[in-house]
Amino acid sequence: SQGLAEAFSNIGVDKNKTVIVYGDTKNGWGEDGRFVWMLRMAGVENSKMLNGGFDLWEAKSYETTKDVPNYQKTEFTIEKLDDRFTVNTAWVKENLETAKILDSRSKEEYDGAVNFGEARGGHLPGALHISYKNLLNQDGTLKNQDELQAIFKEAGIEKEDEIATYCTAGIRSAHLAIVLRMAGYDKAKNYDESFYTWAADESLDLE
Asked: Is the separation of the CB atoms in 172 and 109 below 8 Å?
């Protein structure tokens, strides 16, 4: 957490400011959601994703610049990361049969494709598949509340469920966890160690 606090200090983040994160919605991995997840864990409550990301901003011909801003350094501190937003492998193993486990990768990865050096292919036992990309419209904006709830309901998820999201290394799954929380699924957490760690442990089952 010390390294994270220093990184935030260097770019002028403090807990009283609104922090807006944007990414590449066409070619990215949901990094904007990952950054918001990290900011929330660090206590920056007023952190948000730019709906549609840089792609939509550029498509609408909004102003852009190549200037590098001068940041006023802050003294950002993190006493303890907020663990309400994350779970580890031990938690997932213990709650595998009671929590809703969501795989946010592509359907090909869910079905067994090994594209990124994973030790094994497949998905966690009982995991439901909701690719984070399915939450987006063609222009990269998030689908509306009714559409999101329909996706989650079809997958069998209720707002009171304990939910753990995962991907390969915790980026796409952080995006899914943040969107779930935005939609009112307040117990959604990111399994940050994700599939890399689970697949590397031969004692843990896969489907």
From this structure: no
Cβ(103)–Cβ(166) below 8 Å: yes
* pLDDT score of 1: 80
pLDDT at 20: 97
Provide DSSP, 166-199.
Answer: E-SSSSHHHHHHHHHHHTT-TTEEEESSHHHHHH
d(CA 61, CA 4) in angstroms, rounded, equals: 33
Residue with tokens 């304990």: 162
Q: What is the DSSP letter of 142?
A: B
DSSP string, 103-140: E-S-HHHHTT---S--SS-S--TT-EE--GGGGB-TTS
How many helices (H) and strands (E) in the chain? 8, 7
pTM (whole model) above 0.85: yes
**What does the buried/exposed string (b/e) look like for 185-195 if buried means 16 or more CB atoms within 10 Å of the residue's CB?**
bebbbbbbbbb
Q: By the 8 A CB rule, do 150 and 122 touch?
A: no
User: What pLDDT score was predicted for residue 9?
Assistant: 95
Q: What is the largest CA-CA distance in the chain?
A: 53
Query: Comparing C-alpha atoms, which of 46, 38, 30, 37 is closest to residue 8?
Result: 38
Sheet with 188-191, strands from edge to edge, namely 86-87, 188-191, 163-166, 100-103, 128-129
Phi, psi of 96, deg, nearest 5: -60, -35
